[in-house]
Amino acid sequence: VLYFMPSSFFEYYLGGVNIVKIPGSMHSHFSLFLCLVMMPLEVYTIFKLYKIYKDAKPSQSVLLFPAACAVFLILIISVVMPVYDYQRTLKPFAELVKLETYDNRKIALAFNEEKYVGAFTFYLNRPFPILNSPQEVVRFLSIPGNPAAVIVKTEDLEKFKGLIPKGKVRIIKSGHKGYNVDNFRLLMNVPS
Predict the structure, then answer these.
(1) By CB atoms within 10 Å of each CB, which of 2, 96, 129, 134 scores lowest?
(2) Apex CA 105: angle with CA 159 and CA 98, to 5°?
(3) 42-59 pLDDT per residue, tens
């Protein structure tokens, strides 16, 4: 049911931490349907196992119990896992980058950590030049007539403070509250 709650609910009761932000409404409807199917099925399974136990077949019910638990656990994981994965991946930030760079901007990365380079390459389906210093980032964003963007780590923003001219670069932060999303910012040059 939390999948269908408005964002105001999360703002009021959870301080804005939207722990059930999911990729789309199709998964919400599938999850709700699966939960509605599972509840009566679980009750039926409990009564069936109890009946087998009472019919003087306790060993059979003991053998069936772990199998029934495994089936329900797999179904529960299929509901929870996509939500959890979306929260802990960089996908929400990658979606922000796609949205902001719709005009075919050149995009670069201001870090060279393999796991992040791989993740952004996968989510954005393109290779990226790696910029190894703040001066390279400023040079990349300063090319006249070249719409460009650079993905930087939030912790590295201090390095760019004095180098970037005011009003020439926008710093964009994702509004998503996922675990890894706040670790990155998108620097975009402002067309002149």
Answers:
(1) 129
(2) 90
(3) 899 989 888 888 887 888
